[in-house]
Amino acid sequence: MRRPVAVRVVGPTQWVLLPTLAVAVVSLILATPVKLFGFSLPEVVLPLTLAFAWPLIRPSVLGPVMLFVLGVYLDLLWGGPLGLWSACLLAVYGGVLASRSFLAGQETRVLFAWYAVCTLGAFALAYLIVAIRAGNPPSLLALFWQVVPTLLLFPVSAWLIERFDDGDTRFR
Amino acid sequence: MAFRDGPFENLKLPLVWTAAGLVVAGIAASVMLLVTDSHSRDGTGPIAPVRAGFTAGAGPLGGLFAAPVRWTGHVASYVGGYFNAVEENRRLRRELEELQPWRDHAIALKNVNTRYEAMLGLRTEPPVPMATARSISEARGPFVNARLIDAGSSRGVRVGNPVVNEHGLVGRVVGAAPNVSRVLLVTDVTSRIPVLIDRTDARAMLTGDGSGNPRLEYVRGQDAVQKGDRVLSSGDGGGLPRGVPIGVVARGIDGSWRVKLFSDRGAIDYVRVMLFEDFGQLADPEALNAAPLAGLAAAPPPTPAQAAAIADAQARRQAAAEAAARRPAPAPATTQTPPPPPPAPPATTEGPA
Asked: What pTM did the predictor assign?
């Protein structure tokens, strides 16, 4: 008699909801006003990693909705203009979704290059919106110090893609 | 009839197109939010209550999550302080030697200043009450520089109150919930602070740009600014008290005048909110807009002595008028005659006449 094999279904809870929650909590922790050995904690835009990974894992309805929610959450947490980061995150999601057929199966280096392009595009959009609203362009040096740590988050995106790409057996 | 048995049985939308449609709808909603939210950062606008609610909820939650990080920071600070104790001790001794003559000088100047104020009858600004608070979370990116502090409207904090630390100006309150407030730092891209240069009394505008050193713009006068000049708040516009220390002038990489902030000299974990009220807050608009004689309706009735004095004055005026009427009119003359003397003052001095 064959014993039944437990099949672990990887659903939206694993690759959408839990990462969303993790990103929200880590963003909250990174907003702590503490200095370690004279340096402040980095202020990275963590949801950009999800906006890049989710369309490559699988197009979904939940992804854009969660990105919109995360964008509004970041704006409220940081006190920025409401709608700024939701627009930028969804722009990245849309861009990766449009180039999905090209990116599928590419090497990690190609994915990183596209991640860098998307990140720079998102920050350029945010820079433009803030400069127009405030009538005062933000410092490019300060922008650099937020872009670089965000670029260094690419391994999070790569891990998500590797872990969950086609992980849902219902889509095989 | 189940949905799958209806006319939509064979309707299948590709998932990519569904996601793309949601992306477009989400971007449109974001743009609408951006347009609607144009005024909520100064405490007004339709989304301001949403921000206040989120701030009230995120404040304690942020404090809870931040506690381990804060403890780690304290440990790191303790260890760093232990290793740097000798160097710091030497530096502090040197500073103490430099500052002791300044302390004596300041005491003498304060004494002279107090005497001058008394002699000239100057109306100096009253002392401003303070509320001490701790930072809960902060945004330090290029687009937003703000902090949440754990003091709110329940402790008298209001939108517009200046926030300082022991070194100088940190920012001002832009949102106040009952127990949490949001402080817009002077480095934020939307921050504008009217300042003066201490040496020349020249006025300028301190404009944040997301970097650590805000720009000095609209500097009036020729050679009004030099490297190393102290920058203070000018108090223009009434939003800040005059004379709050802000920083010293320095040249930026781009050649513009910038300010090295005094508040950066120490951690701004703990700040003080100045419960300062500008002229706009002090003035009662209803009292200003009241009719000129509206106060008479609320005036108390005269005392018997005052009533007698008023009646006496009326009788004297009436008698003087009758005497003037009985007097014959003077004949026309070519030479100008002096005017008649004024009537004698009333005999009584009790009460207003």
From this structure: 0.75
